[in-house]
Write a structure and sequence with these properties.
The chain is built from four helices and three strands; from the N terminus they run H-E-H-E-H-E-H. By secondary structure, it is of the alpha/beta class. Strand 1, helix 2 and strand 2 form a beta-alpha-beta unit. This is Ras subfamily protein.
């Protein structure tokens, strides 16, 4: 069973608004775990995505640059708890140097399976006409 996912990439430079999140089934918020403010900024973005998006939006948080930081399990567990506080559906940490395409494929597969749990998220994109209909 295949599901096509429409993936949009945004930067954390600005907070998303309703137009960014209209008709979106899943959002992946990626952040730099080596930054002191990375998680808090990402979660601020995630809160806004949760507020502006659908009530059953699949929201994933991904900590990047895992290879640059020596983290204890407690740090990862604490980050997961904070993410759960803003109702993040999936949480993971990766290193671009150590992650294989198989690992990332599995992660996006988890997102697709979550989307598949909510058939109401399978809305086809709305085509907005550029010209008024002919009378």
């Amino acid at each position: 069973n295949a599901i096509d996912l429409n993936i949009r990439v945004f930067t954390l430079c600005r907070i998303p608004d309703y137009n960014d999140l209209f008709n979106v089934a899943a959002v992946v918020v990626a952040y730099d775990i080596s930054s002191n403010h990375g998680l808090s900024e990402a979660l601020r973005w995630a809160k806004e995505a949760r507020r502006e998006g659908r009530h059953n939006l699949v929201l994933a948080a991904v900590g990047l640059r895992k290879d640059l930081v020596t983290r204890k399990r407690d740090d990862t567990a604490a980050a997961k708890q904070v993410a759960i506080g803003v109702r993040v559906t999936l949480y993971a940490e990766y290193s671009a140097l150590q992650a294989s395409s198989r690992t990332l494929t599995k992660f996006f597969g988890r997102i697709a399976r979550r989307v598949a749990e909510y058939p109401e998220l399978w809305v086809a994109p709305i085509n907005v006409p550029t010209h008024p209909p002919h009378q």
